[in-house]
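Researcher: Next entry in the queue.
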Amino acid sequence: MTSDLKGDSTTKRCRRCREIKPETEFFRRGRFAVGLRSHCKSCHNKARSPESPWQSRSVSLRLRGLPSPGIPALREALGEPQTCYLCGSNSLDWKTAVIDHIMPMARGGTNAPANLGWTHNSCNKLKANRTLPELVTLLKSIIRFQEHLGR
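Model: Structure for this entry, 151 residues:
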């Protein structure tokens, strides 16, 4: 942080846009953390804007410490969200769609675009870290249990 010419406020350089801005243009790090975020409020809002859903998906992978395949690779491999690969529904849109790892990362999957697919958030939560055969087995056991109960 550097001192302004007037000396009454301090400034900071944004890591994303590289502009020097007053500290008031930066969010605090967190509720209990000391200091300011490395990027300014306008850069933060651009990354979160609905005009850049690909950016938020790519950032989501990086925030979890995972190498991101990059926005162009994601867009080319996955296209727009239309069909859930788990339930087959065609009612996906940007609000309900999430990117899921077909082979879970916990089971040795990668962030390669071939291992990613669009799915509903609820379908993704049901699958959790199961493989597709494990999910099918789980669903069959649920159906058998429901039939046993007579529902």
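Model: DSSP finds five helices and seven strands in the chain.
Researcher: Noted, moving on.
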